[in-house]
Design a protein that fits this description.
By secondary structure, the protein is an alpha+beta fold. It has one domain: Alpha-Beta Plaits. The chain contains two helices and five strands, in the order E-H-E-E-H-E-E. The strands form two sheets. The protein has a three-stranded antiparallel β-sheet, with helices on one face. The radius of gyration is 19 Å and the shape is elongated. The model has no long low-confidence stretch (mean pLDDT about 90). InterPro entries: DUF2007, DUF7577, Znf_RanBP2. Keywords: Metal-binding, Zinc, Zinc-finger. This is RanBP2-type domain-containing protein.
């Protein structure tokens, strides 16, 4: 078993785990419940860790992880509504002006 990634946010790490397991790679999250020990233990040692069960899967899992982290750090772009032409911030899934999702 090899450590692939550690992150403070369990929710985000679980999402990464799901995406990697969707590619057929078996993983395990350790330290999920150590957050309560923060302060008694060094902070970084309480972060959850994502481990790959099979060492042979590690290189492929690392490539997938790198793509996920790259996408998460890429700035989102504003978009123009196809119905009314209004510019919308990247965080909007529908047009704030007309309610269209195009």
């Amino acid at each position: 078993m090899k450590l692939l990634h550690t992150q403070e946010n369990t929710f985000s790490l679980s999402n990464i785990q799901n995406l990697i397991e969707a590619e057929g790679i078996s993983t395990l999250i350790k330290n999920q419940h150590l957050g309560a020990g923060s302060g008694e233990m060094p902070h970084f040692e309480t972060w959850p860790e994502l481990w790959v069960h099979n060492d042979a899967d590690y290189p492929r899992a690392k490539v997938i992880l790198d793509k996920i982290l790259e996408q998460q750090s890429a700035p989102a772009e504003a978009w123009n509504c196809g119905a009314c032409g209004e510019e919308n911030d990247a965080s909007f899934e529908i047009c704030w002006q007309c309610g269209s999702d195009s």
